[in-house]
Amino acid sequence: MRKLTWTGVRRSAAERFRAVYGEPPLHLVVLLASLALCGYALVRLLRGDWPAIAVWFVGAALLHDLVLVPLYTGADWLTHKALGGRRRTSWKDINWLRVPFFLSLLLLLVYWPLVLGDPPDYERATGLSTDVFLGRWLLISAALFAATGILLVIRRWRPDTRRVIRGLRYVGGRFGRRSAGR
């Protein structure tokens, strides 16, 4: 059934729901299903040794906030200062270093025991040696930095196509006719 609104336009129930909620009804269904799945996972997780899990979460939060945030904030500040301060480099320029550094550290975090070469029972369980992981991690890290370096060089070398395209001038996300004075 359609209802007459104050503007005189008939709106369906889905349109009224979107006007109130801000998203289509499917968004709410998916959100509630994901919350139910997370709740189920939490109940299953806490069924075991829940005090140790709670201590682990609190410890991870404290480690992140008290140790890691000052470390990577300081490293970012030092990198910014080493590259010439705020005038010559923008935050976009720093991202060419941040992204490969982040991915390299993420790989190191995930494969920490294998990179160090001291995982318990890895060789016995898989029959593979751990001697190759440090070299592979270093190679992947070097490839990440090389790839971003190549992309940066290509981006700086490529002409800026936004300036003038067939008599049109790019201004604020739109193309407009070039004025006679410019």
List segments where confidence is low: pLDDT < 50 over at least 5 consecutive residues: none
Strand order of the largest sheet: 3-4-5
The number of helical segments is 8
Overall number of strands = 5
The computed structural class is mainly alpha
Q: Largest beta sheet, briefly?
A: 3 strands, antiparallel
Describe this structure in words.
The N and C termini lie far apart (58 Å). Helix 5 runs antiparallel to helix 8. The protein is extended and about 65 Å long. The protein contains eight helices and five strands, in the order E-E-H-H-H-H-H-H-H-H-E-E-E. The strands form two sheets. Strands 3-4-5 form a three-stranded antiparallel β-sheet, with no helix packed on it. The chain has a two-stranded antiparallel ribbon with strand order 1-2. A hairpin with a 2-residue loop joins strand 3 and strand 4. By secondary structure, it is mainly alpha-helical. The protein is 68% helix and 8% strand.
